[in-house]
Amino acid sequence: MFPKNAWYVACTPDDIQDKPLGRKICGESMVFYRGPEGKVTALEDFCPHRGAPLSLGRVEDGKLVCGYHGLEMGCDGKTVAMPGQRVRGFPAIRAFAAIERYGFIWVWPGDIAQADESKLHHLEWAENPAWAYGGGLFHINCDYRLMVDNLMDLTHETYVHASSIGQKEIDETPTKTEVHGDEVVTSRHMENIFAPPFWRMALRGNGLADDVPVDRWQICRFTPPSHVMIEVGVAHAGHGGYDAPAEHKAASIVVDFITPETETSIWYFWGMARNFKPDDAELTASIREGQGKIFSEDLEMLEKQQRNLLAHPSRKLLMLNIDSGGVQSRKVIDRWLAAEAPQVTA
Amino acid sequence: MFPKNAWYVACTPDDIQDKPLGRKICGESMVFYRGPEGKVTALEDFCPHRGAPLSLGRVEDGKLVCGYHGLEMGCDGKTVAMPGQRVRGFPAIRAFAAIERYGFIWVWPGDIAQADESKLHHLEWAENPAWAYGGGLFHINCDYRLMVDNLMDLTHETYVHASSIGQKEIDETPTKTEVHGDEVVTSRHMENIFAPPFWRMALRGNGLADDVPVDRWQICRFTPPSHVMIEVGVAHAGHGGYDAPAEHKAASIVVDFITPETETSIWYFWGMARNFKPDDAELTASIREGQGKIFSEDLEMLEKQQRNLLAHPSRKLLMLNIDSGGVQSRKVIDRWLAAEAPQVTA
Amino acid sequence: MFPKNAWYVACTPDDIQDKPLGRKICGESMVFYRGPEGKVTALEDFCPHRGAPLSLGRVEDGKLVCGYHGLEMGCDGKTVAMPGQRVRGFPAIRAFAAIERYGFIWVWPGDIAQADESKLHHLEWAENPAWAYGGGLFHINCDYRLMVDNLMDLTHETYVHASSIGQKEIDETPTKTEVHGDEVVTSRHMENIFAPPFWRMALRGNGLADDVPVDRWQICRFTPPSHVMIEVGVAHAGHGGYDAPAEHKAASIVVDFITPETETSIWYFWGMARNFKPDDAELTASIREGQGKIFSEDLEMLEKQQRNLLAHPSRKLLMLNIDSGGVQSRKVIDRWLAAEAPQVTA
Predict the structure, then answer these.
(1) Whether the predicted pLDDT of C2 surpasses 70
(2) What ipTM was estimated for this complex?
(3) Are residues B201 and B171 in the same domain?
(4) To 5 degrees, how large is the angle CA B75–CA C305–CA C289?
(5) Residue A345: pLDDT band with limits 50, 70, 90
(6) Are residues A70 and A144 in the same domain?
(7) Number of domains, chain C
(8) Which residues cross the membrane (chains A, B, C) (predicted)?
(9) What is the CA angle C32-C36-C42, rounded to 5?
(10) Beta strands in A102-175 (DSSP E)
């Protein structure tokens, strides 16, 4: 169960640079490519001739040419031409709304008529040259909501990521969860603590002492359908914490786009945006590598948690205070799902 | 759905040279071996004692000895002996009709009483010393009829095999499909074109110039249950094309025996028979290697097409003029299936 | 179908030395670890908080700490603590009876209230310093009863293990099967034969001539739920066979603990106990290596037999005299299963 009338990250421009990309999203097998004038296009990955996957074809002058018998598909799902054939009566395949923005290709797996570019939230860090971004993609066999839970409750850092970003004070510091319309914000502020290894590295990378007490914050923001941005950072203690001036802190935004593949698998686009040393490509690469290692620690846990839940479908899980970010996020998702459900009128 | 009262290629003599072979054909797990006097034998791969696969056993004096507890099985499916046992009351296992001919082992997965050697069509190239044959085996996860479609519509060469045997003129030249009883013939004759790389190589191998215009032909012959032989070749233009004298052409027969394993998987025996330089083993090996590479290009397409069709079972495919070879072949198959269906009388 | 109110081998102390072990036994996902004072503990592998597998956690002061969010689980399945939480109302998870004995961890997958240590049979070889033991673990995809059949009918040695312990005389010598309560004993005594390679090696290792006639015995003892101990050995002929004095023979006990994982897969703990040269670690290692090779020969046979039986669920297997050990063992198992079935009263 996922909202279908929503924007999801489908892939990055790299993925469709040389050839079409086949990827299943929200249960739909899609093909992504650049159509006329380079416009990103998403279609059903199914040639109307014999059912071949169009993603095994190639792009020619903005038309997708089926790799089996040469049918030329237009970006609206209607066949344009086929050698030796009149194609006017060919059945159309489904076209999905797709846009390119913020360095990603976004797709709307639901009703194309309802697709609305203005519903894609603004991502300041992706457009402002003062910011740099690096990230990657994991395929994980779990319900996308388990990953939302994971990201809205960072107490797991203490256990899953003990050697990098975890520290006991995360557990000990309560969080506050607020709901603003469809946005859910869970925040935690730890004061006068010592930074864990990842943040000591970030302090040094930022030209700051790493052996003095710091204030540390984590502000998780869920927005539907399943995106979580987390403001994270440390500031030398006594300078205002989250509000400290830039010269006293190292801060960034953890970026998580969670795209369901099926009911129990996801494409997990993870990354980090930072507004310091944005032109330092080496730093971007090293942060990306470190984050990739840390985030890969969640995979086994989430996949085995999913298997446990499938084996015990009727067992109720606990909803503790630390879970309130996930609980509230699921309520927003449920509201979106209800809005998409077929309406019954008396 | 496959005809069961028909001859299929099961394996080659090599496969049963040293030990029995276990292979599932048309949904039946079978064991193949040489029985008394070397006669090829096909039985259910199931020991009546404890259900062990007989294919893990060994052959001794023409008897198949179970590798678990030594039961000796006869070529009629009746137990011959077992250490310390009286075997007369042992239940028989199923025996299948099997014959060795044309360099292959053939099996009749249906009713053994109806098995008729005379129904195996004559293969001139396999018996005439003027011909040489080389081939191989692929396991592919698709319905056998998708491979029949593939072979009866060679426009796919232009796209799937673009760098070897494909060329634009295939698309541009219409085909003619004829049905003669149970045989379906789809033919295409291209005149005054340039040969693609594979055929230039064949011309050179045959001592002919490869840089002059040629006539090229493709004559696909389907015979049930699922065999496709394709006469292919090129002749220097102006010498009569298909009917040109041997010294002006390079020609061969593409041999395709498609044996269903299950409803959605096949054993695909492919090869090429040629009537030039039949004793040149090096040429046989090099053609076989080239053909193996070309034919492997179809695998991904067919397996993903199959998955697409399973995901959309109710969607209708197009039946274009280029598909008529496949369409007519499926009609023959349907007729055979209908003939095997249980009869209902009023 | 397996008895649940019974002791099964779950793992060895090595398996839980450094971290908890997750293992499915009799269909139950369990976590094994050492609780307070090192006592072995078995719980459901399911954190009551969010369903994470507890086996991904760690042990701290005898408490199992969930690796996801730090819940501390007690050895009775009740949550002891969790950072920032009152845990009194947390639902308990299931605890299983577990004991450590004879160098193994044993678990009782059924009703913990009925778990009775006295029901674990005495294993002399595991406690007496005159004996040495070496063994290993295989995972095999078959019903545990197929392995019981295998071990209670050693005629398969002639075929499956032809090059090591098999010999024609096994087939030719009838067995005797006796049932004593829940114990089934199948024995075979071969007289004045030549020893096969494995036993010639054992004779030499024991300082005895390997080129003279021997008496050989095999005494298979099944005890429920699914343990098979086999007394095996050879003695120089004419000294009393099984009853010969120690200086004339090489003997040992083949140890087989068969623990169901699911209905069609097992954890197979195999090994050998010997009462000669018990302190010779090199000999232990070499026997273990040889036995591992021999026992691995059964894997393919059992897994393919299982697949054959699943494909033909209604086909009846034969129950020959050589099968009587397995047949009688299955009767004992059926009796145990019936005793566990819900009682219906009139």
Answers:
(1) yes
(2) 0.92
(3) yes
(4) 115
(5) low
(6) no
(7) 2
(8) none
(9) 20
(10) 104-108, 132-140
Domain-located, residue B200: yes
Grade residue C344 by pLDDT with cuts at 50, 70 and 90.
Answer: low
Q: Is residue A88 part of a domain?
A: yes
Domain extent, residue B108, equals: 8-119
Residues of C in contact with A311 (CB under 8 A): 29
Token code pair at residue C222 = 């099944």
Residues C74, C139: one domain? no
pLDDT in tens, A133-185: 999 999 999 999 999 999 999 999 988 888 888 999 998 999 999 999 999 99
Domain match, A243 and A333 both: yes
Calculate what percentage of chain B has a pLDDT beyond 90: 88
Give the angle A177-A181-A185 at the CA atoms, nearest 5°.
25
Comparing alpha-carbon positions, the chain C residue that sits nearest to B22 is C304
Computed from CA positions of residues C302, C306, C312, C315, in that sequence, does the dihedral angle turn out positive or negative? positive
Query: Residues A66, A68, A73, CA angle at the centre, nearest 5°?
Result: 15
What's C298's domain CATH number?
3.90.380.10
Nearest to A159 among C29, C50, C68 (CB): C68
Gap between the Cα atoms of B138 and B220, Å rounded: 20
Q: Which of residues 30-69 of B touch C (CB under 8 A)?
A: 45-46, 48-53, 56-57, 65-69
- The pLDDT tens digits for B183-194 are 999 999 999 999
In the stretch 65-104 of chain B, residues with CB closer than 8 A to chain C read 65-70, 82-85, 90-91
Closest CA of chain A from B317, distance in Å: 5
Residue A246: partners with Cβ closer than 8 Å, 6 or more residues away:
A275, A276
SS3 for A97?
strand
Copy the structure tokens of residue B276: 């030039």
Query: How many CB pairs below 8 Å do chains A and C form together?
Result: 69
Tell me, what CATH number does C102's domain have?
A: 2.102.10.10
Q: Based on the number of CB atoms within 10 Å of its own CB, is C126 exposed (0-12), middle (13-18) or buried (19 or more)?
A: middle
- Which residue has better confidence, B259 or A159? B259
Residues 294-323 of chain B with CB under 8 A from chain A are 300-301, 304-305, 308-309, 311-312, 315-318, 320-323
Sign of CA dihedral A208, A210, A214, A217: positive
- Which of B119, B152, B171 is the last residue in one of the domains? B119
Beta bridge partners of A101: A104
Dump pLDDT digits (tens) for C197-245: 989 988 998 889 999 999 999 999 999 999 999 999 999 999 999 999 9
Distance in angstroms (rounded) separating the CA atoms of residues C26 and C8 = 9
Å from C27 to nearest chain A CA?
Answer: 11
Q: Round the average pLDDT of chain C to a whole number and report it.
A: 94
pLDDT in tens, A94-118: 999 999 999 999 999 999 999 999 9
Co-location of A188 and A112 in the same domain: no
Strand ranges in chain B using DSSP code E only, listed in sequence order? 8-11, 21-25, 28-34, 40-44, 58-60, 63-65, 72-73, 79-81, 95-101, 104-108, 132-140, 176-180, 183-193, 214-223, 227-236, 249-262, 265-274
Q: Do A254 and A272 meet the contact criterion of CB atoms below 8 Å apart? A: yes
Chains adjacent to C (≥3 CB pairs closer than 8 angstroms): A, B
CB B152 within 8 A of CB B220: yes
pLDDT tens digits for range C154-204: 999 988 888 888 999 998 999 999 999 999 999 999 999 999 998 998 899
SS3 at position C302: helix
The Cβ of residue A124 has, within 10 Å, a number of other Cβ atoms equal to: 12
Report CB contact under 8 Å: A301, C45. Answer: no
B181/chain A closest Cα distance in angstroms: 26
pLDDT in tens, C3-17: 999 999 999 999 999
- For residues A205 and A288, membership in a common domain is answered with yes
> Tell me: the pLDDT tens digits for C34-50?
999 999 999 999 999 99
